[in-house]
Specification:
With 814 residues, the protein is α/β, with parallel strands linked by helices. It contains 27 helices and 22 strands. The strands form five sheets. The protein has a five-stranded antiparallel sheet, sandwiched between helices. Strands 7-9-10-12-11 form a five-stranded mixed sheet. Strands 14-13-15-16-17 form a five-stranded parallel sheet, sandwiched between helices.
């Protein structure tokens, strides 16, 4: 039996083991808890990972689907682009930075007949280069565009296909720029337009043939018409029985209608062929409108149609443009309005905006239906309209007016209501003239009328002329003081059908006159009265009559007015004896001493032994025509003004007349008023220019500087012409100095620009020889001619400049 000591040992050992077991159990429990927590955390992380994997899988799947969709869309877009370009007949190309082709679509192969591999890797320009000298300018321009890295569209170029056939292509392109703004080449499209170009050339050829046909037809028609119209006019001025007078009047009326028709057909041919050229210069808007009203008044009065006229205060007195063509357009519209108005009024009003002049012609006539108004501007279309058939007319006037408006950069529109009337609105760009406007600030005026609108329109026109207008005469505290000084000018509108005011108005007017005021009655021409101390102006009130009232001129010498060419020696050349008789009769009645010849050679012989103040030259003559005869006359140093007389009214041919040395132009058939105006103009021009310093030189030096044509360009304003020549002389001297420096610096681009400025201003000033020298030198530099050729032309240019400078100084010293 163990003793107590042994038991104590066992007891302690048991206690230790028990304690160790407790510790082990506690440790096991702790580790188990940690393992549990770790397991729970692992489960949570596993779930999070599974969630993230699922989300990422979804994203990847979505991106995959989007990529597949984008690829499909890109493929579809490429196919669509290829289909569109193919349907449009276009091909696609790309280049690198050196402009070498890196891509070319298959469509190009169909046109050029080359395999794509044969073209990729070559410079794009090489496809279009070395075709002919005519293409060099286009190639140079294309290279400039590439150098400046510009976007361009529709650049037309010529090339040859593999078979050597000439093709026309247009190319368009944009520069490729990377995200770092670095140039990476060009990307663009091209198109074969050979068939279009051939069709265009054929259309131009057909239009030219049509224009030439109408030109020849116009001449053939107008030449006999000239005899008919002229002889009938002479016949009407002779002693005829009443029935004979009526017959002659019918002949003249029919011939006039044929002339109008021939002119209209010719104008339409010019418009349709794109050859309607504008002769722009400063002109008086008031004179243009006055002449329109003077003409149309003769057609409106027999129908008792009231003509009304209004010009807004802001309309300039002068403008820059083609006055003759603008007048033609306005007259067509006025005639149209009068023709289709049986009673009521026709109104011409003029307004101005910041950029446009607007002419409105309205009437109270038959109007136009909605279906017809869409056709009225088409050539000949109106002849098929029942309303127009009833009224007559060729149906060309509105088409011509629209063509003129569009040629001027404007437009013509119409509004109308059947049986109520029509309004035509002609708007053209407003170009400022260099002529100073008239102004009468010292004039105090009053307008007396029961019609406020009528009074307001005249007041605006007077204010436009700088006058001070009293709106309400009775309310003005200064009118009595003004009238006593004689400064007041009162305008009274008389009612239609009366040639004097009412008794009350007449009493008041008499009181005004007694206080020193001046009075003007505005009336219908057939209703003029004879009230003493009162001036009468017929309506519609033309501006020149207003000006005469504001600044009265002394009465002209009646004998001088009846024989304006008294003692003037005129030479007429025409191979048609009837035309000679017509011209001789008209000039003789104006007081001229007339001699005639039937050929250019006879004319030149006569000029060797006799002198004349003016020559009328027919253009189309056998053997030597009028243009050639003029050149021969000028080459002999004869500076007598020469006026072309022809039935061919083409703008291009008129330029030829002036280039040959002619000074004026009159169309056939001859009209006495036109003949008198043109001869008077040339006689005044001669007086201005035929000084000892210029007479001998002009015939031989008109190509150096044609002062006659220059004066004509500036409406015979000698002082204005000298001012322009002086400015041109200074500017040309500076440009010549600049040209010398540019040639030394070997700067071809700036040199050509300088030469372009010199040639343009020279041609405008009629210094043709110097202008031609500048243009020729510019072309030589552009074509990279040899240094010897360029130096020779540069020497010629300096010689021409020295000659021109001497002519300009002589002109400025006259």
């Amino acid at each position: 039996m163990p003793d107590d000591e042994q038991l104590e040992i066992w007891k302690r050992q048991y206690q230790r083991e028990k304690q160790s077991r407790k510790e082990a159990e506690a440790l096991l429990e702790s580790k188990s808890r940690e393992l549990y927590l770790a397991n729970e955390e692992l489960k949570s992380l596993t779930k999070e990972l599974e969630k993230r994997v699922a989300e990422r899988t979804k994203i990847i799947e979505r991106q995959k689907n989007e990529a597949l969709l984008q690829a499909a869309q890109l493929q579809e877009s490429e196919k669509r682009f290829q289909d569109v370009t193919q349907a449009a007949g276009e091909y696609v190309w790309e280049t690198d930075e050196s402009l070498t082709l890196t891509y070319l679509s298959e469509q190009a192969s169909d046109s050029l007949e080359y395999d794509i591999e044969d073209l990729v890797g070559f410079p794009l320009v090489s496809i279009f280069a070395n075709q002919s000298d005519d293409d060099q300018d286009s190639i140079n321009y294309l290279i400039e565009l590439f150098k400046e890295r510009k976007t361009f569209k529709g650049q037309a170029l010529r090339c040859r296909d593999k078979s050597g056939n000439l093709k026309w292509h247009t190319i368009s392109a944009v520069p490729k720029i990377d995200p770092h703004q670095r140039f990476r080449g060009y990307r663009g499209t091209g198109r074969d337009i050979t068939d279009m170009q051939k069709a265009r050339d054929e259309a131009i050829k057909a239009a030219r043939a049509k224009s030439e046909f109408f030109s020849n037809m116009s001449h053939e028609i107008r030449t006999p018409l000239n005899g008919i119209v002229g002889m009938s006019r002479i016949l009407l001025e002779s002693n005829l029985r009443e029935d004979q007078f009526n017959y002659a009047q019918s002949i003249k009326s029919s011939a006039d209608s044929l002339v109008t028709l021939a002119n209209s057909i010719f104008d339409i041919s010019l418009i349709e062929s794109g050859k309607l050229e504008l002769k722009e210069k400063d002109f008086s808007i008031d004179e243009l409108l006055d002449s329109c009203l003077d003409y149309i008044k003769g057609k409106a009065d027999p129908k008792s149609i009231e003509l009304r006229f209004a010009v807004a205060r802001n309309v300039p007195q002068y403008a820059f443009g083609d006055a003759a063509r603008l007048k033609q357009a306005i007259l067509n519209l006025l005639e149209n309005a009068v023709n289709f108005t049986n009673q009521g009024e026709v109104m011409l009003s003029v307004q101005a905006t910041e950029n446009d002049l607007i002419f409105e012609i309205s009437d109270t006539g038959i109007g136009i239906s909605d279906t017809e108004i869409e056709k009225i501007f088409k050539s000949y279309e109106s002849s098929h309209s029942l309303s127009y058939q009833r009224e007559g007319g060729s149906g060309l006037g509105l088409s011509i007016s629209k063509g003129i408006a569009e040629a001027m950069g404007g437009q013509l529109t119409a509004t109308s209501a059947l049986k109520k009337g029509s309004t035509f609105r002609l708007s053209i760009p407003s170009k400022k003239a260099s002529i100073e406007a008239l102004s009468y600030p010292e004039k105090h005026c009053a307008v007396l009328s029961s019609d406020n609108r009528q009074a307001k329109r005249l007041a605006e026109r007077l204010q436009r002329l700088g006058c001070q207008v009293i709106d309400n005469l009775e309310a003005s505290q200064e009118w009595e003081k003004l009238s006593q000084k004689g400064d007041l000018l009162a305008f009274r509108f008389l009612p239609l059908g009366q040639n004097r005011p009412s008794e009350a108005e007449e009493k008041r007017d008499r009181a005004l006159r007694e206080k020193g005021a001046s009075l003007v009655y505005l009336h219908r021409e057939s209703e003029a009265g004879n009230e003493p101390g009162v001036a009468y102006i017929d309506r519609p009130v033309r501006t020149y009559r207003l000006l005469r009232a504001l600044a009265p001129d002394p009465l002209p010498d009646d004998s001088a007015a009846n024989l304006p060419f008294k003692g003037i020696r005129c030479l007429v050349i025409d191979d048609n004896s009837i035309n000679l008789q017509v011209a001789e009769s008209m000039l003789s009645k104006l007081g001229a001493l007339v001699e005639v010849t039937t050929s250019a050679s006879a004319c030149i012989q006569k000029l060797k032994h006799s002198s004349f103040e003016v020559i009328l030259m027919d253009i189309r003559m056998p053997s030597v025509n009028g243009v050639e005869a003029t050149r021969m006359i000028r080459s002999n140093g004869i500076a007598t003004p020469i006026i072309a007389v022809t039935a061919n009214a083409g703008e291009g041919e008129i330029d030829t007349f002036f280039q040959a040395g002619m000074n004026g132009y009159i169309p056939k058939p001859l009209l006495s008023s036109e003949l008198e105006a043109e001869v008077s103009r040339c006689l005044k021009l001669k007086q201005k220019t035929q000084t000892p310093a210029t007479t001998a030189a002009h015939g031989k030096t008109s190509n150096v500087f044609d002062e006659l044509e220059l004066l004509s360009l500036f409406s015979h304003n000698f002082e204005l012409s000298k001012l322009v020549v002086s400015e041109f002389s200074k500017q040309t001297k500076c440009l010549m100095e600049e040209l010398t420096q540019l040639v030394k610096a070997d700067n071809p681009t700036s040199t050509r620009e300088c030469l372009h400025n010199l040639s343009g201003s020279s041609f405008n000033l009629r210094a043709n020889a110097f202008g031609e020298s500048c243009a020729k030198l510019s072309k030589l530099i552009g074509n990279e001619a040899s240094e010897q050729v360029v130096d020779a032309q540069l020497k010629t240019l300096h010689e021409d400049y020295a000659t021109l400078r001497a002519r300009l100084e002589a002109f400025l010293n006259t």
